[in-house]
Amino acid sequence: MAVSVTTKTAWKLQEITAHSSNVSSLVLGKSSGRLLATGGDDCRVNIWSVNKPNCIMSLTGHTTPIESLQINTNEELIVAGSQSGSIRVWDLEAAKILRTLLGHKANICSLDFHPFGSFVASGSLDTNIKGHTQAVRCLRFSPDGKWLASAADDHTVKLWDLAAGKIMFEFTGHTGPVNVVEFHPNEYLLASGSSDRTVRFWDLEKFQVVSCIEEEATPVRCVLFNPDGCCLYSGFQDSLRVYGWEPERCFDVVLVNWGKVADLSICNNQLIGVSFAQSTVSSFVVDLSRVTKSGFILHGLIRDDKPLVQPTPAGSSLRRIYDRPSTSCSKPQSRVKHNSESERRSPSSEDDRDEKESKAEIQNPEDYKEIFQPKNSISRTPPRNNEPFPAPLEDEPVAVKEAVKPSQAVDVQTPLPKQEHSDPIQRPPIAFSTPVTRTEPSVIPAARNEPIGLKASDFLPVVKNQSQTELVDEEAMSQIRKGHETMCVVLTSRHKNLDTVRAVWSTGDIKTSVDSAVAINDLSVVVDLLNIVNQKASLWKLDLCTIVLPQIEKLLQSKYESYVQTGCTSLKLILQRFLPLITDILAAPPSVGVDITREERLHKCKLCYKQLKNISNIVKNKSGLSGRHGSAFRELHLLMAVLE
Length: 644
Known about the structure:
Elements: E1 10-17, E2 23-28, E3 35-40, E4 45-49, E5 57-60, E6 66-71, E7 77-82, E8 87-91, E9 96-101, E10 108-113, E11 120-124, E12 136-141, E13 147-152, E14 157-161, E15 166-171, E16 178-183, E17 189-194, E18 199-203, E19 208-213, E20 222-225, E21 232-235, E22 239-245, E23 248-255, E24 261-267, E25 270-277, E26 280-287, H1 350-357, E27 359-362, H2 365-372, E28 401-403, H3 473-480, H4 484-507, H5 510-520, H6 523-533, H7 542-556, H8 561-587, H9 596-622, H10 627-639
Parallel strand pairs: 1-28
Antiparallel strand pairs: 1-26, 2-3, 3-4, 4-5, 5-27, 6-7, 7-8, 8-9, 10-11, 12-13, 13-14, 14-15, 16-17, 17-18, 18-19, 20-21, 21-22, 22-23, 24-25, 25-26
């Protein structure tokens, strides 16, 4: 007697600790469904193979958190955009940086590779693409590569003609920020999902709305058309929903407890979904052979005043089909190259130095060679004949794999000197079960990714399981606004103080403005002013040193790294320009007769000398520190040796 075996329709595949800090973005490769890239607040991009335990490669070079990621069609290249607005493109097979782009001035919110050409589109909080008035949240090239769709916080979706370089149409109708857009794989149809909790379908021939699905309980963040275009998948907090659009209807709802799903991909009739919460990334699988993609209506999206239209048969279309280029597109048309003089940068430029510091650190050589350099395959990317993930039995508990965090400083090509653990294989295993107590640093770093002493979780409602629960936007904002007025008062006061200092400077000299900054008794204002003065050495005079040196003494003992850095820069400038003068005047024999100017200069030199002696003790004590702070203080200690 045969026994029927039932397997799960959806299950959790893996859970990994992807970064040493919070995960800020992630993306799946769409060709294989097996390549995963994660970006973190630690400014790294980590490359993973779905369902494999270890990080394959870690890409460095960004100096601010990674805000957006995209992998190209062939899974050869990856582009990452950061909080500062910089964009970096890496070649995954060659494990090297290809290009650093610095066109934006604010967070990179969205990226997309052209399906055939070697270029990317980027959207930012600075509202470039021009035409949007708020942050551009999503970009997608059309399947034929002729159009670009952009979605933004200004509630609009715009369609751009790349050949003409201008906007074709602006779709309005959403009442909240538009988070995602997706082209139909074959037809002239576009889907958009919004924080207004609707999914809208747009006809790209008639430039009008086809239908709107309005039943969602949470903002729409992630959508994907089935490869044959028969339906649209939408990922929500606790489910995957399957939609049709002519008329609007829901074919199926699959319960998947994946939390804040960030990206979807389809391979071997399986849908792969990835989500993240803090530093953890989870992957899930939905067996699409068990999902209803057409036919009957699961529940009432049909309006009473609309006749039921029969679903369009597979292979037929109600609207125009995209024309693909006739040439093979299995490889990009050309590698990104620095050809023109305008694109070249001098080796001494800061941009070029940044590019040299960008590295692809191979964490797992075996997986790297298997995926990106297969011996018996022409394809550069993960093999297209990946086997489906085996579905667990309905009553079988799923063993979720935990992965080891990527190494933070391993470069296989160029091992770092004086590094005790250069071989990642020899490192002791990381015990994830051991609780780690966070202690605030004695010196607060200038490049920190979160405010010290302020934790976002303190302003939000307590959630029992953050990986499964997404806060409603309005609720989160109301909690954050509680301290908003206080912060506005602080920032307004600082702005007013700086305006006062600027007004004094415009009517007087630099000494008077520094006097006014010191009188305000706000060290942050002094730091802001010194950061300007330090850039122009000609502004410095001896009488200015007498005012600034007591402030430098405070800065060098500050807990803020940025204050210490400013203090060190000012002190170094004073020592180089004025210490020889001070020592010469103090060593000179007394003058004959009365020379008021000389007496005033002598008085200033004695005052500076006394202040420098006090500061030298601080510098001497801190010169034993390690890292760049210790190096800066040791340099200052050498410059101040004459005082001893």
